[in-house]
Specification:
This protein is mainly alpha-helical. Helices cover 86% and strands 0% of the residues. The protein is built from 18 helices and no strands. The protein has helices at residues 3-36, 39-60, 63-76, 80-116, 123-148, 152-209, 220-258, 262-274, 276-297, 301-328, 330-338, 346-371, 376-400, 402-428, 434-452, 458-478, 487-495, 501-513. Helix 2 (39-60) crosses helix 5 and helix 15 runs antiparallel to helix 16. The chain is globular and about 65 Å long.
Amino acid sequence: MTDKKSKLASGSIIILLGSIILRLGGFIYRFILSRLLTTTGYGIVGLTLPFQNIFIIGASGGVPPAIAKYVSEYKAVDDKQMVHQIIITGLKLMIFMALLAAVIMFLISEPIAIGIWHKPEALLPLRLVALIIPFSIIVGALRGVFQGFYQMTYIFYSKFIEQIFTLIFAIILVLIGWYAAGAVLGTAIGFLMALLGSYYLFKTDMKKNYLNGNYEPITFKEELGLILKIFKFSIPVVISGVAEIFLYDTGTFFIGMFLPTLFAGFYTNASAIARIPLIISNSISTSVLPATSEASSLKNRELLKLYIHQSYRYTTLTTLPVSAFIMVFAAPIMSILFGKEYVPGASALWILVTGMFFFSIYLIGSSMCQGLGKPQKPMYALIIGAIVNMVLSFILIPRYGIAGAAFATTISTCLLMIITMYDLTKITSIHAPYLDMIKMFIASFVMIGIMYVVPQNILGMIIGGIIGSILYLAIVVFTKAMKRDDVVFIEHIANKTGPLKKYLDPVVRFIYNYTD
């Protein structure tokens, strides 16, 4: 396998491993809090999450990616003055926006909790979200600096610190009687500790080893021009980010409006499980952006076609069986992870995980459009999907409860997937590998059929998952849905399994021999 052909697979696996570790921390947080709090108390926590997400993304304004971009550019030409100035100006901008967003969040908390939701118990947790916002946004700026210096390990450390301290303080505060407000306050403390840790890493590495000189301050006019430059890059990023949050969390907002609080807890945990396939697609989409950009700049149509086909096949190959497993065993998964009280969330989970598969395909198309210099295409699709989701949620949730929220999201993600795939085909004149994807769908239906006949318990999940996965892979291999170039993706996974590698290598060779 040549370096270019294996680039997408190797990059995706590295990102995937880090994503799995960080996502695991999030599940531990939910696992513990869902048992420490009542379903109503956990529902209140769930109601605060959309506001945490939308204000963090909205207030940051896409500035961290802009910081990363310009720090990287100026560092490449060893312009320390401009690297220093980008960091200083970016931090000033982020601090201002963080304080503004915190004030707005505090002011709207009462109208939302009392006026729209009619849930006074949600008022204090919503107000505490205002405390989270400044810390989270400023630490986001420092993560942008780390990315610009290619210190991805520091980003991992920062997120790890955030998760550990969030978990510790949330548990302590809930146990001493702060209830749902304690869980939200624990998140604020987690971000504060991440901020302190991130600043320590920045000070002891970047500042000490690279930004250690005396720099002339720039004029107000020059700094204003730099702010505008950052904003120009940030606007498409923030619009896409906010639209994505609307797509994820619109259901939670309308659940708070139309249903009792405990249903927000059911839906929050169902949504978290449904997003598991996104761990895979996010890792692939991150790698495919620079890969397609390279192929485009080289004007190498065959390489571009290879990357497009590999991306669709990798994503479909891996996310379909995961989605199928979650769909069939939705009820026992909810019970095992969060307790029997959360089993009603399964009515949304089996629907929602289908929507997250559609969103996985959208992510791939979106990254390839961005890599080809057409970021506005997926942005428009995402805005359309967010609007459709809001309308459908308003209509369906009062009638069908949390299942209505899941249907609204699934229909919306299907729509934006179709739009983005069409746009990508129009841009490149390269069609997705539809026949191979159809074969994988057929294999997943067989897998679902096998898993439905086993008992809906832990033993059934294990047996059904193993047999179903073997049949799925066998059908994919023998119908030639997987190509020989694709085997490198499985090979990279096998290489990361340590002592299991020697048992997986014969499987990889077997698959390789039966592919074209």
